[in-house]
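Lab notebook page, bench 4
Experiment: in silico fold of construct C2
Operator: M.H.
Input chain length: 1116 residues
Purpose: comparison with the prior construct
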Amino acid sequence: MKKKGLLKKGSSVALVATLIGSQLLATVPVNVLAAENSAEKNSVDALPYYSTTVSTWAELKGALSNALVTDIYLDADITIGETTDVAATMKNIHGNGYTLNADFKQLKLTTDNAVGLMEDLKIINTTIYGLFWGDAANLQVTYKNVDHNGRQMIYLPKGELIIEGTVTSNSTAEEVFQGKQLTIKDNANVSFVSSATARTISPISFLYDNGGLYVGKNANLKVRSTAATIYGGTNSTIISYGNIDLKSEKFQAIHLASKGAMYFQPGSVLKAVAGDKTEESVQANDGSIFVEAGATFEVEGNGAQGAVIMGNTFKLAQGSNFSITNFNPNGSALGTYTTPANVIMKSGQGVSTWDRGTVTNPTPTATYPGLLNAQFTLSGYLNSVKQTDLTSNNGLFNSAYNTGKTGKIVGGSFASKAISQTTINKLDTDATLATGIAEPKADVVLKAGTTVIGQGKAGDDGKYSITIPKQAAGTSVTATATWNAQVSNATTVVQKGTADQDVARNAVDALFTDTSKTDIKSITDQTAIDAAQALVNKVQDPTAKADLQKDLDKAQSLLNAKNEQAKQDTANKAVKELFTNNNPASNAIKDTTNQKAIDDAQKTIDALAPGSVKTELQADLDKAQSLLDARNKQAADDQAQKAVANYAVNQLFVNNTPASDAIKASTDQDAIDNAQAEIDKIKDPALKVDLQKDLDRAQELLDQRNATASQLEKAKQDAARKAVNELFNNNTPTSNAIKSTTTQATIDAAQKLIDAVTDPIIKKALQEDLNKAQSLLDAKNEAAAAEKARQDAARKVVDELFNNNTPASNAVKSTTNQAAIDAAQALVDKVTDSTKKAELQKDLDKAKALIASKGTLKIDDFVLGTTSITGSYSGDVDRITLSKDGVESGNATKTNGTFKFYVGPGIKKDQSLYMVAYDKNGREIAREKVNFAVVTAGQITPKAMTIPGDSNISGTYTGDVSRIEVTITNEAGISTVYKGGTVANGTFKFYSFDKTKSPKDIIVVRAYDSVGKLLDTKTVTITNNIVTTSGNVTPAAMTIPGDASLTGTVSGDAATLKVTVNGTVYAGGSIASDGTFKFYTLDKIKKVDDNVTIAVYDKVGKLLDSKKVTIQAPTK
């Protein structure tokens, strides 16, 4: 614990009080006024405001450590990674509803007069120091809308905690607040719960002198604990304009040490409950307690000492409301400690007192009604406490009041409660119990006239029940309730008794299910109705008897209907069970339905009363009878049909008997089908079984006979089909192609097999396929002759290209040219035999190779807006020209396998461009199309930034921007390149809070397309560090050919160089410390007429100056 020693009680005390007859003029201590003024002030001198949003512990720690950041906004739940000292003079954490898990780590404010804020936050797992604690001087920490759960909410031994909004704390180990000053602002709602069990580990604890608690208007402070709820040191002060609700299970509610004071201002409410069996509930030690007009002061204690103890002044002002109770029978309501006390007690509604041990009685021991002004000096804190110098405007109070005997005293609204209005329920001549409502715990007396006929007490709920003798009709019975010297009466007149009616009514009502009397109970039978009728017959009052008889008749009617329904249900069941699926709508009766079942059902119908139900059931029963009659008739018909079918089946077999297991020669399919028709006419499936078995055997025997006769024909058909199919590719006529082995002989052989087939349908199909094969063979023979002629013609022309008309010479004739080769190629292309064609093509390719030069072209994609087509070549290329829209012109410049063709600035995307290569003989050997390059473009526009302050580099983009790259150069000139960020939907964003620290940093953003092409470069404007740069370049004249580098001087902020040659930009070169520069250009500037400029840029890429370079030819 972090405690200072607290004052303990001695064995003897003296308390002095001075009573005055007018309002007490008390001077509020200076430290109290200071606390009250500080509660109205929740601001500090204006400080720079820099905010950031964090979502991780690393980000939060960085923001806490950054002296420039004042406000931190949480964007996620965060767990503190390590105990951290916060040296800033202002640090505000805005939780946005997220959770800050202290994980038993600390955030400590270390600078005197620092200001901190925890807002809109859930805090868990704190140590016994909490978050934003500190022992530096004059710390001021505000908790606003905070939900805390941990070992302790906060420790501020030299500082102030300000509470706004709704703040709750469940502290599991020690205090909730432990510090110097606790200020609860207007309209705040505060709930503290502490699990600590030691007396002095109070939820609210003032560690040092001059500490205190301030509760603003309409604010609510609720504290629950085992320990004392509030514990304060010397000169501690409590000022309340709001509502304070305190409860300690085992110890005091409020304990303030020496010189402590409490000020309960108009409109404030204190409810303090202490469970301590020895000590007081509320104590100001040798200090004072002031309860002003309009304030409510309610204290409950359980100790042997006074429930409220003070040592200087105890003022209960006129208009205040007070109730002070000590439930310990040995403890008084008031007491003093160390010095006598002045007690000033005023109440416009009088004062009531209870002696010790009677405080739970509803009626006080003494009541002093009306305006009471009293004052006296009080000494002692045990039940021996006594008052002296007592004066008041109430003589009875002067003579009767004894502080030492008083366990409870109330005044103001607590003494003005009016007694509840007494009621008495109706009584009749049969009544022996009077009931009603009175003031809870009031004494109740019942009288008939002036004679007491019963008495008792109202319960805690105000209800009473008192036994009385039966009274005559017309007797007036009065109930009188007495409580706290107040009386309330109620009277009723005894009515004639209705016992006979009540018995009958109970019997009749018991027949029904509820008061609606729309249905009788399941147990209600004729016996019950007859018994009720006997009771109704005894009722004397004719009107009541008529009402009872009416209800009884209704019960009889319901019973009759119930009995009739049971008969209907029985009949309905009997009829339905005659039918399939128990449903007459099925129009079919069950196999088990017989005449007896129908007769039994008829008896249940006969028992029904006439009506629609009986008529409908009789109709269904008649249907069942009809179906039964029809079934019986069908059985007789089936027997007759069985004899006919049996004759038809027997006639199929040898000797007219299935036992022969052989069918007659005359038995054919028609005979079997006719017999089947006769069997099908039988309705009963059981009668069909044996007949169908014999007929199925006859069918099997007929099938066997037919199968033997067709086997030979089937063999002929199969042989013919096999022969025909094998004429075709894949052995299928649908291929529409015959095999290479198919000849006229194989076709003739197949024809002989077809001729042997007798089935006309099969034979026709086979003949059609054979005719197809004959047609294909005829066509094949004709095509072979034509192909032979094409091969011979091609061979002759190819051979004639070579010396001695033979390719084996490996030399072509001098007359062989491209036209001759093309003519030969045309004849070779007509050959269809792939093998022959390949042989011819091989020889023709040899001729081509002997006369043709070879070459290739590879063309670079042309970028619209440029003036040259470039590429590479190989082979026997001698000259490269451009074919533009079909017209050839010009020659390209060739260098070591590359070429460049100047086309000027006028090329359009819809033009047709080809580069054409020729060999030294002027023969075209390559032609390639010029493709146009896909050009990407895009721009970025970064937003201006404030550093520190902004956490992200952001902006917008257009065009083909796919990713960004950020370069940050610090004041030392060190540059760091970062990749990442998000680029989407026209905006980009790059988190930079941990990367840029100073407003003098230089931030450059570069935009690239999807393949890495640089599209745009921009420098971010830092609003609090706008830097202006300038510079110049002076190039020296160049001699071409001759000079290998461009040189000159630069000035100002020039940092980088770019040289442009005929529209092509080159970056590079170097700048020396003396301002001279050098740029290698031997491979870039080649002619005197090249157009060359040089430009200089500052270190963020800003163009500073550009000059044209003078180029001269060498002197001769």
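Observations: The CA atoms of residues 520 and 1081 lie 117 Å apart. Residues 499-568 form one domain.
Next step: discuss at group meeting.
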